[in-house]
Amino acid sequence: MVTALSSDDAPAVAAIVAAAVALLWTMAELLHAARVRAIGQLAFGPCAKPQPWVRCVPLLRTLAAAAAAFGLTALLLVEPISHGGKALGADKIRHLLVVLDVSPSMRLVDAGPDGKQSRRARAATLVRSVLARVPVDQYRVSVVAVASGALPVVEDTRDADVLANILDDLPLSFAFPAGKTDLFAGLAAAARIARPWRPGSATVLVVTDGDTVPATGLPKMPESVSGVLLVGVGDPAAGKFIDGHMSRQDVATLRQVALRAGGVYHDGNTKQVPTDALTTLGMVPRERLLDRLALRDYAILATVVGTALLALLPLLLALAGSRWRPGVRRSRSGAILEGAGRTGMWSPPSTGRRPVGAGGSNLPLGGAR
User: Fold this and answer.
1) Does residue 139 share a domain with residue 111?
2) Which pLDDT belongs to residue 368?
3) What is the rounded distance in angstroms from the CA atom of residue 104 to the CA atom of residue 109?
4) pTM of the prediction?
């Protein structure tokens, strides 16, 4: 029967099993309550009543048993999680297009919080940080290298090793002839790649030092691109001399390009891309905790809570279920009377008379015969 069921039937089947267990457990609790009432004085002392909180124990036990049954049944029927992940439909796949500047100026060392990191290494750190925060099971990543032109390096990959090889200082600059950085050529290549995709399913991430950005020629992004995130690297104040000019991050130009492209600019020279920016672009889903829980998570929670209650209730009943303590005599006010020995057995107080058979007399001690 279990093999004929699918994971879609798991919630309904688990609910039916939990309802059946709750019904049987309720009948058992009613029978148990009748038996306890018959021996009330033996179980709870002369008052024949437990502590007031014990009245809710039958309900708690019933709910705990039903929760445990629901959780265990759901875990039995739901499909196990595989490390490879489940294939997503075409309507749920999202794309990340990384336009990576690999021009010679990206080898200059003036980036990072301490200024001792190359711009290319800082760009790799920023891209890894973004990839670590997006749901990788939903994203396909494409990389376009930019220098004096633009070349697609990889398209729609999920292979983390391929991306790591590209980011780990792969000498992509040797694939381009000498010349000024053409950032707009990279954006045009990204637009061509993204054009066939579903509308609103792609995000463009541009990482560059903004060394040479043309004033005109910005390509228009297709409908598939929902947002553009432009991240600058390199010291924006003090530049480095290369190829006959001073190279530094041009913050004003990069911010203007991001604005014209309908995107967001971030100075990533010393700070990581904030999660709020990724959430605004739709790269990190804005979900509540309950929205991210699946049937497996609810099943585990129900199993843990149900079994924990079933295990702890007997201990609580034994420790605090009744006021009666066998072997200790109390007055009506609840005070412990004299004569309760260390063994817990009550013995009558001394009356001053000699016990019968002790010296053949039952007169008061020291009295005349």
Assistant:
1) yes
2) 44
3) 11
4) 0.59
